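Why run this: before we spend reagent on co-expression, it is cheaper to look at a predicted model of the complex and decide which construct boundaries make sense. The entries below are exactly what would go into the expression plan.
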Amino acid sequence: MADAANQIANRIPTNLVVNGVGRTLDLVPWTTLLDALRDHLGLTGTKKGCDHGQCGACTVLVDGRRVNSCLTLAVMKDGAEITTVEGLARDGALHPLQQAFIDHDAFQCGYCTPGQICSATGLLAEGHASDADEIRELMSGNLCRCGAYPNIVAAIQQAMGQP
Amino acid sequence: MINFQYSRATDVADAILLLSAHPGAKLIAGGTNLIDLMKENVEEPSRLIDISRLPLRKIEETADGGLRIGALVPNSDLAYHPLIEQRYPLVASAILAGASAQLRNMASVGGNLMQRTRCAYFYDTATPCNKRTPGSGCSAIDGLNRNHAILGTSASCIATNPSDMSVALAALGARVHIAGPSGERTMALADFHRLPVDTPHIDTNLDIGEIITAIELPPRGFAHHYSYLKIRDRLSYAFALVSVAAALELEGNAISEARVALGGVAHKPWRSLEAETALRGQAATADHFSRAADLLLQGAQAYSHNSFKIELARRAIVRTLMQAANATPQSQAHKKIA
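The model came back. Tokens follow.
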């Protein structure tokens, strides 16, 4: 009986507020927040790049702080508010960072872009970057293999209100 | 990732009980290193005990004028805390030299001490590794060992400790507060991590069932003369080839107190009391710093690909001590080395 029980994955009810909407998922504990968002909630804006916390493509905001969702277990975030790239626009208007990325052509293939924009959203909220060097340093957890870095920095500066 | 059971600890005592009740269990807080290692099948805990909600997030002044930092304080919160920025800027600088903003938001200070080596062979389950599988051998000694240790190595293991924060904490003489089945105790951070000797699979002197509850900084913060210099293969978001935490107290140009710790070169933050003693009473000059570097690197042994690290470390020690003496600490954002 115990063995049989062990073979059935113990699913854990997990409440997440994702982009302002309460969602309840029954998850096996090894489900990452990234997989919960993509595979359970269909929110595929958040990207799986390296799946090891080295590229930043999976960056989302948890209770307003930017994190790597690939290294986060969803069950550990029970009760948290999650913001993904799908939750940044308001009333049909793009988030200033989304608009700035378009204005500055801050991407080529676009695969890293949702993570870049979520990470930059966290960076602006943290308030520790005041010039281009500091933006570069504090965005170093987001790789762009197309090499759009100069335009990404320019886009973030625009969103910060810097010329 | 393997399947595992999940428990949420209700308090520190509950976490200790759960650890004792489940021998294959591991604690999880930020998870940034453990989940990665589980995805690689390097760590295979039967159960994760979630301690992330325990009330260990305070940063409080101690009676003697030091600072007690709860084990679950995120790395970023510690680095940007006003008391750390003002009184222990060496700690802030070292933390901001490590990982990325996202990882620093997730990682706890207790977890930072518990992170495991980034030796590529430790991560690669297809290769022998005494740290991962005791007795299987060390692939690095005769393998690609450019990133590996030059001090305190053994025939069993030449891995390095990857933490930047620990290097600063070692220099400052921090203590680790620990709770376990037989009560509470504290340990000098210098004694927390072990050299590999013939048991490289045991990284720390934590006993089974013990949990880190806090890190304590002594009153002396060296806020005027400090620097953390990290040399790596890219300018950000990379582990150290060599890093140096330097802290001085000066009377005029004479050194009254000196601390130097090295990262990226050993299985633990590397200090030499002999080198620090030799600096006391001396003028803060490159010659004296060079002599201290010799003492710090006494016994350094290179392997086939990392002989450059000895000279790199020597120069980095002198440069970091000069930065500290001149009160021009290395910026972690503006990368030019002063």
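Residues 308-325 of chain B form the longest helix (18 residues). The two ends of chain B are 45 Å apart (CA to CA). Bring this page to Monday's planning discussion.
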